[in-house]
Amino acid sequence: MRIVLAAPRGFCAGVNMAIESLEQAIRHYGTPVYVYHEIVHNRWVVERFRREGAVFVDDVADVPEGATLLFSAHGVAPEVRRLADARGLRTIDATCPLVTKVHREAVRFARKGYTVVLVGHAGHDEVVGVMGEAPEAIVLVKGLADVERIEVADPERVAYLTQTTLSTEDAARIIARLRERFPAIVAPPSENICYATTNRQRAVRTLADQADVILVVGSRNSSNSQRLAELGRGAGVETRLVDGPEDIRPVWFRGNETVMITAGASAPEDVVEACVAWLGKRFRATVESCTLREENVRFKLPEPLRQLVEEP
Fold first, then answer.
1. Coil, strand, or helix at residue 51?
2. Domain limits at 217?
3. C-alpha angle 203/207/212, rounded to 5°?
4. pTM
5. Which residues contact 303 (CB under 8 A, 6 or more apart)?
6. Residues in contact with 254: Cβ distance below 8 Å, sequence separation at least 6, in sequence order
7. Which of 181, 210, 230 is the last residue of a domain?
8. Do 207 and 287 sit in the same domain of this protein?
């Protein structure tokens, strides 16, 4: 067996920042530290922090008054912030800055009287947060069929935004149709789909023709991991989404194929390494890395953690 490790893969800058934020919050404030939703969409990361004293909640009312509450990488609606303030919570905003950018653009367009078409997945934490910025002005579009059903007050004042973890190909098709329906539609100042999503998808597209099987390491509630798996299948390659080595089944392999391994932006590298080790032990696999692009993006910790970490 030959294993091709795609790079870039795994943690992006937003995930790194959110994880470090929770680590530092636990270190400086003690436990429990409450987290609104999962810190990132990965079972291994969530389980690790549960063991360390983090408590994940879906309702601010479940957080004791005066406790520490960290907002996850996916962002939250303004109402969540208001409720946290009303309960006197110490809040730490670990929202990915690229998601924050989409929030700000939604507010800016809504204030100018635009209908904002948000391309994304219903119920995803990021989408729920963005729509909460201006629910009266934002219309969610999940696919091409939704584009046909949109009704707007003024076709000359329409703008679009996208979830940061979409398939770039799917988003392009939806945006093209939006432009056909609303020729005056306004684009965001810069692409909303994040660099990490784009880079990981590009790596799968580039390397898929080398692979007999693709393993995508990531949890099933991870949007960007699901998109990577869809890309592999779309390229005609047998593709499996696995949380870790315990999900891998020997019957998927003959033992002499090329297996490409990648990972979603919230999947830890040690889990990737465990998957590689599992295949290596069972099939005497050789491993080679294929790096298509270097990533050197880093986001600063949120306040007040930045001050705590920088103090001598």
1. helix
2. 2-11+195-291
3. 135
4. 0.94
5. none
6. none
7. 181
8. yes
166: its two tokens:
């979409």
Which residue type, as a one-letter code, is found at position 244? G
- 206 assigned to some structural domain: yes
The answer to whether residue 187 sits within a structural domain is no
Total tally of structural domains belonging to the chain: 3
CB 159 within 8 A of CB 187: yes
Q: CB–CB of 1/283 below 8 Å?
A: yes
Choose one of 181, 212, 234: the last residue of a domain: 181
User: What's the first-to-final CA gap in the chain, in angstroms?
Assistant: 51
Distance CA 222, CA 241 (A): 10
**For residues 179 and 309, what is the distance between their CA atoms, to the nearest angstrom?**
47
What 3-state class would DSSP assign to 269? Answer: helix
Neighbouring residues of 311: CB distance < 8 A, sequence distance ≥ 6: none
Catalytic residue (one of 38, 126, 133, 230)? 126
Q: What is the pLDDT along the chain (312 residues), one digit of tens a residue?
A: 999 999 999 999 999 999 999 999 999 999 999 999 999 999 999 999 999 999 999 999 999 999 999 999 999 999 999 999 999 999 999 999 999 999 999 999 999 999 999 999 999 999 999 999 999 999 999 999 999 999 999 999 999 999 999 999 999 999 999 999 999 999 999 999 999 999 999 999 999 999 999 999 999 999 999 999 999 999 999 999 999 999 999 999 999 999 999 999 999 999 999 999 999 999 999 999 999 999 999 999 998 899 888 765
Query: What element of type H or E holds 56?
Result: strand 54-57
Active site residue 295: no
Same domain for 69 and 124, yes or no, is no
Helix (H, G, I), strand (E, B) or coil at 205: helix
CA distance 37 to 123: 12
Residue 186 domain-assigned? no
> Distance between CA 269 and CA 185 in Å, rounded?
40
List the CATH number of the domain containing 48.
Answer: 3.40.50.11270
